[in-house]
Amino acid sequence: MIPLLALVIGAALARLAGLAGVDALDGWHPALRVGLALMLVLTGTAHFSRTRRADLVAMVPPGLPRPDLLVTVTGALELAGAAALLVPATARWAAAGLALLMLAMFPANVSAARRGLTLAGRPVTPIGTRTVLQIVFVATAAVISFGP
To answer: Whose CB among 19, 65, 79, 96 lies 3.0–4.6 Å from 44's, allowing a Cys bridge?
Structure first.
């Protein structure tokens, strides 16, 4: 739920900044880019955090090679994508790539929920809730990629 809050609060604050006169944030499209970037910084840094990395490695579905490398690569892609979202010239392509990345990572969330894993000592998000969250995240990326 924290990533959703980061997305919503980040976008709302960016939109308020736009309304207050920050030209680069004048509109919902740039505000959504900021919100999604904030969410991805939050989730991307978790891939490298001492308290969460082992849990994220455990979430990788059994049978996939090198779960530790997959977590490193996906974390790096999330952080690079967050930075690219903030650059207008790269934002649309970054959002499209991030939508694909989120779709590719979704099976790990489903697998983790089915296996009853924990993240930072708490059960991972149930499949139904996680599916709704994933739809929101991917839809946000799609709006950025295909929007004005």
So the answer is: 79
